[in-house]
Design brief:
heterodimer; A: mainly beta; globular; B: mainly beta; six-stranded mixed sheet; five-stranded antiparallel sheet; 57% strand
Chain lengths: 112, 116
Amino acid sequence: EAQVTQNPRYLITVTGKKLTVTCSQNMNHEYMSWYRQDPGLGLRQIYYSMNVEVTDKGDVPEGYKVSRKEKRNFPLILESPSPNQTSLYFCASSYDRGQPQHFGDGTRLSIL
Amino acid sequence: GENVEQHPSTLSVQEGDSAVIKCTYSDSASNYFPWYKQELGKRPQLIIDIRSNVGEKKDQRIAVTLNKTAKHFSLHITETQPEDSAVYFCAASGHAGGTSYGKLTFGQGTILTVHP
């Protein structure tokens, strides 16, 4: 089954404790992306990757890091999480940019 | 960079009526415009998309129109049903050479409620 898998689905943590949200897709997609969703703000792109070892900033990259060492994986790293990063996060992938994106089920992060 | 504005933020209709959601974008280089539907507690899912070389696209009860000159595009849902109730997002993505190439910028979302 074609899917985008995110882990964990839920996480409550404290300020400053490094965390990683993993994202994996099994569709051999070139393009992967991370979004955060906040009430009234829609989905905002954090980082995207158009291929292995190619990553670019989206509209809200501050406080986040990503890596794309393999085609299927695109982890999101919060080196020193802060309460303003409490949000619902979605990973998505597509065959290429400008193509329909498949979203994961989301990760709800709460940073106290 | 790209800026996408979406209106209205909430829309309430009676079952069987039509619903229209409108979006405007700022980057004239944008060339791909998808619409996503997100049901409560679920992931966003693509319902229809349009590219800049096309003015209108239909898929059963759903249609999207694009006006490149005015830089706006709209989602039209006819014969609405209660299961159409969800949050709808428009988005815009640019092409090579544009400032929004590779990015996908979303509108703020529209909460559609269809009353039986």
